[in-house]
Amino acid sequence: MIVLRMYLVVVLVGLLGYTLVVGLNHGWNLFPVFFSNIVEIGWSGQFHLDFATYLGLSGLWVAWRHQFTGAGIALGLVAFVGGMLFFAPYLLWAIANAAGDAKVLLLGRERARSV
After folding, report:
1. What is the rounded distance in angstroms from the CA atom of residue 106 to the CA atom of residue 111?
2. Do 34 and 45 form a contact (C-beta atoms < 8 A)?
3. Are residues 65 and 108 in contact, defined by beta-carbon separation less than 8 angstroms?
């Protein structure tokens, strides 16, 4: 899990820097650009739609991992909107919380106990 944690830290630092530069140069209102590309039905829109489905899946997994509690649903929504800027720190936390147990990492502590 050391390699995964190193990857997540590198991705998070790089993405934070990139996001800061883009936000300062182009503004912070991502959604009109994101959805207008999807509506145009081009390759950029295809990529954005594909990415949105990945974000939806990551949000569902986070909510499921927390057994669809209120906090789990809230975390899932943040995962959907926040993308890797949320997901990388979340996974770093989850890895630490799982103490290296892949079953706990993937399923959450409650489900891992019952399997």
Report:
1. 9
2. no
3. yes
Task: Count CB-CB contacts under 10 A for residue 99.
Answer: 9
What pLDDT does 84 receive? 96
Q: Which of 80, 77, 71 is nearest to 108 (CA)?
A: 71
Q: Are 80 and 58 in contact (CB under 8 A)?
A: yes
Strands (E), 1-115: none
Residues in the chain: 115
- What are the phi and psi torsion angles at 31 (to 5°)? -60, -40
**Burial of 114 by CB count in 10 Å (0-12 exposed, 13-18 middle, 19+ buried)?**
exposed
Phi, psi of 42 (to 5 degrees): -125, -175
Q: Can you give the pTM of this predicted structure?
A: 0.87
**Structure-token pair, residue 18:** 């990139």
Tens digit of each residue's pLDDT (9 = 90 or more) over 48-61: 999 999 999 999 99
Answer whether 80's CB lies under 8 Å from 55's CB: yes
- Residue pair 11/88 in contact by the 8 Å Cβ criterion: yes
